[in-house]
Amino acid sequence: MKLAFLAASAVTLSSVVTLAHGQDLIVNSYGGPYEQIIQEAIIKPFEEQYGVRVIYDAVGSSQQDYAKIKATNGRPGFDVVVMTASQSLEGCREGLLEPMSAETVPNLAHLNPAISAVAGPCGAVHEIQYLSLLYRTDKLAEAPTSWKDLFNEELADRIILPTFANIMAAYLTQVMSSVHGGDLNHNIDPGFEAMARLAAQAVGFEQASAILESYIADGRVWAMPFWDGRAQLLVDSGAPVDYILPEEGSVPLIATLNVPAGADNKELALQFVNFFLEKTSQESWVQSYKVGSARPDIEVTDEARARKITTQADLDALLLPDLDALSANLADWGMRWEREVVPAAR
Question: In what helix (H) or strand (E) does residue 86 lie, and over which residues does it extend?
Fold first, then answer.
């Protein structure tokens, strides 16, 4: 689905950027609730402030969008795209994405440098989710506090796990490795040993997040790993669930704004990226989409601050992965998952 809005006249974006008559910005991202939220929280304010109109392209997943960027050698037909830090790194290495700096996108200077480093020079981190522990409040005698609580006897046959095709599985293995004396990338054996034990507690494996969610929503399982953004939406729906950032910390899912190297409206695209990273824009995005921010100076409600990554202390507590190492290990880890984790399931 595409929402098209055509510019009617020439406008001045800033003291240094003047647009020609009829110039449009094409932003590619997700549909559904995401589209509604980004329209209200980001796109409409951007249009009003700069006097331009945006064509919103909600076609394709981030993987499909990046495949299109590769197939067209950096000229996919859109100017800004929402992807993940892993895709941002790969696209930057291949010269398919535009590098960004504080000179071209001034608000990059306000982002946590460690988080920005994970995404590389072509990705502007506009949101952070973390792998949370989601649980049924009406089934567990006590709320969990640790990843180790997933191994409690009361959760036997009450856990669902992702398949390795869902990146959540690799992140959970890394977290479990860190919790049990290993690390995120090199000493991963403790993670696989822990996941094999956890699989013995599980009812099975599912790939799609929507299907994973259905298991806890209808009470078939009582606890599971899940991204905090989707977990919050489930809480808001009124389901008897809650979620935590376990005391040992967690691995973030880092989302980026990217500009294809061959974008037609590169200057305007960079203006849009900078606008999305503005303090007020990040505050609106965190409150509306219920995710975290790499900008630690934002001011949000106490509820959002308690649940989301919004402060320097929150950012410092994250377990930051080496995404290049993860990419290099992913195929081998997938085969190991099939050999060691899947057969251990009940």
Answer: helix 85-93
Q: By residue range, what is the domain housing residue 154?
A: 129-252+320-344
Extended strands (E) in 155-294: 159-162, 202-206, 223-227, 241-244, 252-258
**Statement to judge: residues 26 and 108 lie in one domain:** yes
22: alpha, beta or left, given left = phi > 0 and alpha = psi -120 to 50?
A: left
- pTM recorded for the entire structure: 0.84
Q: Can you give the pLDDT at residue 21?
A: 37
**Which residues in the chain come in under a pLDDT of 70?**
1-22
User: How far from 248 is each of 132, 144, 308, CA to CA, in Å?
Assistant: 11, 12, 16
> Would you call 222 helix, strand, or coil by DSSP?
coil
- Nearest residue to 172 (alpha-carbon basis) of 110, 100, 223: 223
Q: What is the CATH number of the domain that holds 108?
A: 3.40.190.10
The letter for the amino acid at 203 is V
